[in-house]
TrEMBL record:
InterPro entries: LysR-type_TF_proteobact-type (IPR058163), LysR_HTH_N (IPR000847), LysR_subst-bd (IPR005119), WH-like_DNA-bd_sf (IPR036388), WH_DNA-bd_sf (IPR036390). This is LysR family transcriptional regulator. It comes from the Bacteria. One of its GO terms (molecular function) is DNA binding. Residues 1-58 form the HTH lysR-type domain. Keywords: DNA-binding, Transcription, Transcription regulation. Belongs to the LysR transcriptional regulatory family. SUPFAM superfamilies: Periplasmic binding protein-like II, Winged helix' DNA-binding domain. Pfam families: HTH_1 (PF00126), LysR_substrate (PF03466). It comes from Pseudoalteromonas distincta. PANTHER family: HTH-TYPE TRANSCRIPTIONAL ACTIVATOR TTDR-RELATED, HTH-TYPE TRANSCRIPTIONAL REGULATOR.
């Protein structure tokens, strides 16, 4: 199987255009079309649908794509390990991240990252759905939950401290809860279906079932509703730090820490050698966020 054919197929999957993908690899439209035909002939399946107006992947093409990306990533890393080719990160780096964190903290950091590595193409997919890295063809995932899959390797990028907060408007109208148990007398705003809030109580965990009537599937929406005075909520500092700084939100129950604190992780498959582009991403973002992230300094 020819690696040039694989590289072209991966570019077509990103551009949905054979001619454009070919130009990116210095191939004429005729040669690019011939490359894809040869790849399909070798595999014995059709990988793409061709029409006069657009190109799309077949079901077999969708299934083959992550494997083609895996082969190219492994080849890139293998060549770099013996000093062959360029040690500078190149190619396409595919990233998946939670929607709110991606918009608020990944996008702003990409400017300096792309200036440092102009040979990289960045493909970001922001979603709160946990995706399969290998099946989805991703090089790296940003996650804010504990690592459960033993086939993945995780590197900590930053802390993710979470607090209970409310708006001054809500506090003025409803008063402050003084203990976690007081939350049952307050309106709460919950993320998705998380209605039980866990607080540290010595060596034990105190779980409070809240009575919130407002739920969202997005952290920024939860925060914004809290700013509007619609209830008390749990929020990550990275999501709410600017609102805490300007007084739009106030931390409550400071003496009762949550058990929900976590970290921000960069995750990649353990069966994939660490490609230069993945290493560069991890190193850049660890340095960008710093030992104490900027959202923890208010």
């Amino acid at each position: 199987m020819n690696n040039d054919h694989l590289a072209l197929f991966v570019r077509i999957a990103n551009t949905y255009n054979i001619s454009l993908a070919g130009r990116e690899l210095d191939l004429s439209p005729a040669v690019a079309s011939a490359y894809i035909s040869k790849l399909e002939e070798n595999l014995g399946v059709r990988l793409i649908h061709r029409t006069t107006r657009k190109v799309s992947l077949t079901e077999e093409g969708e299934a083959f794509l992550p494997h083609a990306q895996e082969v190219l990533a492994t080849l890139e890393t293998a060549r770099a390990s013996v000093g062959a080719g360029s040690l500078v990160p190149q190619g396409t780096l595919r990233i998946t991240a939670p929607a709110s964190f991606g918009r608020m903290h990944i996008v702003p950091a990409l400017k300096s990252f792309m200036q440092k590595y102009p040979g990289l193409t960045i493909d970001c997919r922001f979603s709160d759905t946990i995706v399969d890295l290998v099946e989805g063809g991703f090089d790296i995932a940003i996650r804010d939950a504990a690592l459960k899959d033993s086939n993945l390797i995780a590197r900590k990028l930053a802390s993710d401290n979470r607090i209970v907060c409310a708006s001054p408007e809500y506090i003025a109208k409803n008063g402050l809860p003084k203990t976690p148990q007081d939350l049952v007398n307050h309106q709460t705003i919950n993320l998705a279906s998380i209605e039980s809030w866990g607080f540290k109580s010595g060596k034990d965990t105190l779980n409070i079932k809240t009575k919130g009537t407002l739920r969202f599937d997005n952290g920024e929406a939860v925060r914004d509703a809290c700013v509007q005075g619609l209830g008390i909520t749990i929020s990550s500092n990275w999501c709410s730090y600017k609102y805490l700084e300007d007084g739009s939100l106030v931390e409550v129950l400071k003496d009762f820490p949550l058990v929900a604190n976590a970290d921000i992780w960069a995750v990649y498959p353990s069966n994939r050698l660490l490609a230069p582009k993945v290493r560069a991403f991890i190193d850049h973002f660890i340095a960008y966020f710093g030992e104490v992230p900027y959202w923890e300094k208010q």
